[in-house]
Recover the amino acids of this structure.
């Protein structure tokens, strides 16, 4: 069994976590001002896009570190949240992911400092590095899918996927092979998971609870 995971569309996960980023070779970013974020170099934007498309990244492609500038907002973050365009997990979720096959991806630990940029937060934080692609999504046999803008750079047709019921998303049986978490190149930014990982995340006694927005996929012939 394979699952489609739409948790990345949860806007609360990226509702200004109260952090500012430090990228390798770049100065500390300025905090958000009235929902307006910092302007980032093209290479950083490229790394963000490559990550949500399942490309393998180097450590230097992720932010080097973060500093908290708004304690009240940062304390509201669940065990899964977006920061500077990358998905972050706390230790409780990292412990679950570490039990499964992450393929060429994995967990990338990084530091978070207090506002002084010197004193570390005591907890552990990790980027969720997807790092895997499978090319098993079958749009012709899926429901509630719509073509997005054609990606000329990669010469592929992306799809927007909005499943309403189990079986709306079709994948080939090859989806059951290899890593337990991956990105389909034609469905960028959305996650696909093995049955074991999806069930473990769904049933984890982590509070506050995370709605992983899971939908069972339908296995079809190639």
């Amino acid at each position: 069994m394979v699952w489609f995971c739409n948790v990345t569309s949860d806007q609360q996960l990226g509702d200004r976590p109260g952090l500012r980023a430090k990228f390798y070779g770049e100065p500390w970013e300025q905090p958000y001002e009235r929902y307006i974020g910092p302007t980032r170099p093209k290479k950083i934007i490229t790394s963000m896009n490559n990550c949500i498309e399942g490309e393998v990244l180097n450590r230097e492609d992720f932010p080097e570190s973060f500093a908290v500038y708004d304690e009240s907002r940062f304390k509201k973050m669940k065990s899964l949240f977006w920061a500077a365009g990358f998905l972050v997990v706390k230790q409780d979720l990292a412990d679950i992911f570490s039990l499964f096959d992450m393929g060429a991806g994995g967990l990338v630990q990084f530091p978070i400092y207090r506002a002084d940029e010197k004193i570390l937060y005591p907890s552990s934080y990790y980027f969720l590095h997807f790092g895997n692609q499978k090319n098993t999504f079958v749009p012709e046999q899926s429901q509630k899918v719509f073509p997005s803008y054609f990606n000329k750079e990669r010469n592929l047709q992306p799809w927007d996927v909005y499943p309403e019921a189990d079986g709306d998303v079709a994948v080939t049986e090859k989806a059951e092979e290899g890593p337990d978490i991956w990105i389909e190149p034609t469905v960028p930014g959305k996650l696909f998971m093995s049955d074991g990982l999806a069930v473990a995340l769904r049933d984890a006694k982590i509070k506050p609870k995370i709605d992983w927005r899971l939908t069972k996929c339908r296995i079809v012939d190639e």
Q: What stands out?
A: The radius of gyration is 18 Å. Residues 11-95+105-129 form one domain. The chain has two domains: 11-95+105-129, 139-220. The chain has a mean pLDDT of 93.
